Amino acid sequence: MLDWFSSFSTRSPVLNALIATTGTYALTALGTLPVLFFRTAPRRLMDAMMGFAGGVMVAASCWSLLVPAIAAGGVQASAIGLLAGASFFSIADQLLPHLHAEFPDEATLEGPRVHWRRPFLLMLAMTLHNFPEGMAVGVSFGSGDLGAATALAIGIGLQNIPEGLAIALPLRRGGMSRGRAFFWGQLSAAVEPVAGVVGAVLVLASSAFLPYGMAAAAGAMLYVVVEELIPETVRSGTTDVATLGFIGGFAVMMSLDNALG
User: Fold this and answer.
1) Per-residue DSSP letters for 31-66?
2) pTM: predicted TM-score of the whole model, two decimal places
3) Distance CA 121, CA 110 (A)
4) What is the number of domains present in the chain?
5) Rounded to whole angstroms, how far apart are CA atoms 5 and 22?
6) Helices 13-32 & 118-142, crossing angle to 10 degrees?
7) CA angle, corner 161, sides to 236 and 16, nearest 5?
């Protein structure tokens, strides 16, 4: 572990962010692999896994982003960043036509009415959803705190595993081929390496951006959890397993952050 941290400490934060977010993307692809062999999975299992993802995102927003943002720039800067990140996503949610990325077979078109194909609408949703996650990792590496950044990258990677599968399985169940369903599932996190590099570059260009960037990423992720993940995981009525999954994900991310941060 010490050798691993040592190798990261000798690289530029931008390269570290690229490596870490490539890893979070790879875990998405790993989580999507079962679609090559199965058409379905128990809905209770999927709701628990997506609840876990939501718990990780909320804990990461609190422990990995907002706490260091307040330490770096104070409550006012962090509140401004938090509100800006959530507001940006709220506006984008209204202006961009898209489908909710999780359980897309149940999703209806949101935003302006268009006649685009569902895969393209799904791609827009995936990009919108995953950009703040990658940016959060990039900003964290740009801050220079390798332990906290590593914990955040691990947490984001873990919650990416069920997300890819939640996208791919409904597509496969709807008649899409194994290969195409896998392609769309793993693509859900393809934007994260780009976002990670952008986040690290912004912090390195101006240290004043750090608290705003961290808080904005937290606000965006909290918006996604409340507006999308929680409603999707309780749609089928399995609130018990979704809630337990959420608490489990929160506990895992909290433990990671305090162990490595």
Assistant:
1) HHGGGGT-S---HHHHHHHHHHHHHHHHHIIIIIII
2) 0.85
3) 9
4) 1
5) 17
6) 140
7) 145
